[in-house]
Amino acid sequence: MPKVSQEHLDARRQQIVDAARARFASHGFARTSMADIVDGSGLSNGAIYRYFKSKDEIVIAVCEQGTEALPTALTAESVAAFLEHVRARARDTDHARLVVQIYAEATVSPALAVVVQGQLAALRATIAEMVPPRRSQQADEIAEAFVALCSSYSQQLAMRGDVDSAPYAAALMAIIEG
Amino acid sequence: MPKVSQEHLDARRQQIVDAARARFASHGFARTSMADIVDGSGLSNGAIYRYFKSKDEIVIAVCEQGTEALPTALTAESVAAFLEHVRARARDTDHARLVVQIYAEATVSPALAVVVQGQLAALRATIAEMVPPRRSQQADEIAEAFVALCSSYSQQLAMRGDVDSAPYAAALMAIIEG
DNA sequence: GCAAATAAAACGAGGAGTCACTCTTTTTAT
DNA sequence: ATAAAAAGAGTGACTCCTCGTTTTATTTGC
């Protein structure tokens, strides 16, 4: 095949990332082989290595694309709705399991750790901005605990299947209100 | 060598578990080979398989031995001291990294998931008992969030190196006090 | 026909697990 | 009591396989 549009190239790359993410989420990183990604993507072995230099590069791409959701405001309703969103995503796409896998790999792969740390810092910054003025002095501390507890809810979902979100909603509000 | 005391057998088994834990903590589960455990334990390849049927069995043994610490009371001082203990252990023995590895593996290995779920449930039960009478109605919910946030602090330590424990201490007390 | 892109086979490394064997202690038979 | 036999602990070379990557051949559009 001759030269092809940039959109086409992007689409192909996306196919690979999507296949990899699905497989990482359902089987974990270590138990996903290149052959699995080849099969899942519908492309060939050679094609994959045209778009990614190595398996590790694919992991990083998956991680970079995996933007975490956040509540839109720090109100009880908004937080509760957000937790339900996390719960639904864990149920429907194994997203929680994927996140746990990425975190584990990040503790062992410096390149991935950089990406993950950056994403976590961005999440904390976003939350810190939402902290009500009354507590803006502790905005950073609140954001730290808030984001940590959110990611922990995701982690619990990954390990225990389904977990009621109510205790987490209550705890998050307690953290915000002090 | 002929028949040998039970203590001797236990000691040998412990050698293997210790070597495996150290390596899992520093390099992760997937990046630890049987050869690594052989070298670290000072035993031979064959000897290891006399004590454990497979690598997965070793992981489970490591997990079963890894009891998590807990605060002795739900007071500000006790909780703060506990978090510092977690922090110190992460720094000195890479324990936080080990936990993250185990959690990730548990999402993918049913046998390990059973062990991990049991341990988490025990931790929640212990915390629930400590909840002050004033809030005993919500003891279970509080314990759920409390344990989750503790394990999240550990997770953050694993991924980000060192993290101040103060925000977590404040958040944990906020959860307890509502 | 040519260049780009893909597919498939081949390769080399490394891993988990096995097995035939050794060596030492315990048991047994004389 | 002593020597032969049995049994258990430990060994490490070896096997078989999987995996990530590279190389080679083929196809495809212009």
UniProtKB/TrEMBL annotation, chains A, B:
Ranges of the DNA-binding region feature: 33-52
InterPro entries documented for this protein: DNA-bd_HTH_TetR-type_CS, Homeodomain-like_sf, HTH-type_TetR-like_transc_reg, HTH_TetR, Tet_transcr_reg_TetR-rel_C_sf
Keyword entries, A-Z: DNA-binding, Transcription, Transcription regulation
Claim: rRNA-binding is one of the keywords in the record: no
SUPFAM superfamilies cross-referenced by the UniProt entry: Homeodomain-like, Tetracyclin repressor-like, C-terminal domain
Residue ranges of domain HTH tetR-type in the record: 10-70
Superkingdom per UniProt: Bacteria
Pfam families: TetR_N
Protein's name according to its UniProt entry: HTH tetR-type domain-containing protein
Taxonomic lineage of the native organism: Bacteria, Bacillati, Actinomycetota, Actinomycetes, Kineosporiales
